[in-house]
Amino acid sequence: HKNLFFVFYHYFNIDKLKKSYICKLKINKIILDMKKHITFGLFALCMAMGFAQRHEIGIKGGYSIVGGDAKSVIRSFPDAGTNRRVQPTYIGLFYKRNLNPRQAIRVDGVYNIAFFDNLYTGTTKMSNDILEASALFEYSFFSINDELKKGETKLSPYVFAGLSGIMYDHPDLMTTVGQSSRGFLISTTYTGENIHKKKVTLGIPFGLGLKYKFGYNWSIFAEAMFRYTFTDNLDYSNLDKMNHTIRYNVSPTNRAAAETALQQYMDGHKGKGKDWLNSVTIGISYAFGRPPCYCK
Q: Residue 192: which region, alpha, beta or left (left: phi > 0; alpha: psi -120 to 50)?
């Protein structure tokens, strides 16, 4: 009986040892496979990023116009107030993080000044000082972010899109209702107060450009950017949404008729849709930095 007991005891323990050994082999195989996948993934990431210079800073300049109800001014013109020539302007700084030789994330800080016709008088020009901050994703059709060899150059078109925060002028206006033998005369002018009062809106920027890289770190580029905005007042065309004062120069008996005429005037200055802010620029940038892994 004792011998039989020992036979069964050793048999079942050996079976447990076999099962435990097989389990350990399976676990070791899983760990080995995971190590292979992780190593391959890191190598692929290194190969994707290894030749891309990580950081890029630059400056660009050009001109901006507002696409709205008022006709935009696209060239310099004499300013009667300052007796000098002025023109639409775009000045911007940017930082770009190159994710790989073709893709990048870009942050822009921009000052725009746009000029357009005065919808209310038709004789003077109006302007809007516009500040803008944008976050953009940029995609190049060729590997323009590669590190260049000595004497090597590269050229690539690119496209981009993102989201903008826009701060624009929202000055006070004055609407005057007068009376003549032919009816009511209604006009809107600047009050000269709060001319730099600001409002904030969002925009959806997108566009395309052409970039030429040379001298290992340097690039020059030309770019066209279009921004759809969520306001109809970049050109001050939506009078109902503007800060404005109403002045009546009519007799008390004609006040009701004057208010009706004013309402018709206001209905005619409600704008026809959201405004666009568009720019054409040229710029220069400097790339630097290397990723932590460098594979060749």
A: left
